[in-house]
Amino acid sequence: MSSSTAPPISHPFRILLITTPQTPKPTLLEEPTLNLLTPYYSASIPIWHETLPTSPTALEEWKTEWLHPDASEVVQSIGAWVVAFRKPAAAKTGDGDGSGGLDAIQRLLKTVSDVVAHHRSKEGSSSYAVSAGMEPCFVALGMAQSLSPRLEFADEEWEDMFRECGGWEWINSEAQGKNSFGEKVGMERLKEALEANEWEGVGGDLEEDDDILEDLGLEEEGNDYGHLDGIDKGKDNLEIREAILARGDGGELSEGEPQDVQLEDLEHLVVKMQAIKGF
User: Which of 128, 261, 136, 131 is nearest to 200 (CA)?
Assistant: First the structure.
């Protein structure tokens, strides 16, 4: 099957890009969507973005929000978790220039892994949305660090350290070409990993896209969820997250309502609240 005839994925999982403060978005994930075209499928993957400090207090607050029962819908809609950070300049936070150290990055990765594991272990939530057995992609993306000296480890050491934080794949954004095993590295490896991921997800089992749009009151322009793409949940959107998690119905969801419909309702709340706040 040629890529030109690859079947489209209409309702894919999302990418959640988490960056630490002062860490730029990787070029591959700068846009609201990532367009993927392979011999097996084509898809426009929506990208959500969140800037997350690495202090213990900030991570604990984030973890509390994401452990809320309603957050399970969102967690299960994410097919790839990409955490981008500047390569640490010190082993421990506070050493050297006082910036976040390796310990802070490991704490961040472990916190995210714990949240995902929590929702996946809940009864009835052992699979991601409509794809039974689907495993999300976890990428720890090390970005350029201008500080000198900085921590220097062989790739194998980075890989071992981050794998122990919950199965994260280490990717050095500055690497180019291929490694000694002939495998792609750097941003090409990130693209390869995302292309190899399972994206058939939210709403994939619904028969008519038009029915979805009508039920949710969405406009049929561009891709179905274009106005949802690129929701940037940084510090300015903290109120939005809190409002979603503290919904007026007390957080209770209809037992008979399909999970994918519930998720789209949740995202529709985000859109309405962003409109009210002028985002």
Answer: 131
In whole angstroms, give the CA distance from residue 279 to residue 265.
Answer: 19
Tokens of 26: 């990787």
Which tokens belong to 229?
């793409």
Contact criterion met (CB below 8 Å) for 139 and 80: yes
Residues in the chain, how many?
A: 279
Predicted pLDDT at 215: 32
Q: Write down the pTM of the prediction.
A: 0.70
As a three-state string, the secondary structure of the chain is CCHHHCCECCCECEEEEEECCCCCCCHHHCCCEEEEECCCCEEEEEEEEEECCCCHHHHHHHHHHHCCCCHHHHHCCEEEEEEEEECCCCCCCCCCCCCCCHHHHHHHHHHHHHHHHHHHHCCCCCCECCECCCCCEEEEEEECCCCCCCCCCCHHHHHHHHHCCCCCEEEECCCCCECCCCCECHHHHHHHHHHCCCCECCCCCCCCHHHHHHHHCCCCCCCCCHHHCCCECCHHHHHHHHHHHCCCCCCCCCCCCCHHHHHHHHHHHHHHHHHHHCC
Give the Cα-Cα-Cα angle 177, 181, 186 (nearest 5 degrees): 30
29 contacts 81 by C-beta, under 8 angstroms? no
Q: What are 86-124's pLDDT values in tens digits? A: 988 888 776 444 446 899 999 999 999 999 999 888 644
Distance between CA atoms of residues 45 and 47, nearest Å: 6
Q: What is the pLDDT of residue 242?
A: 53
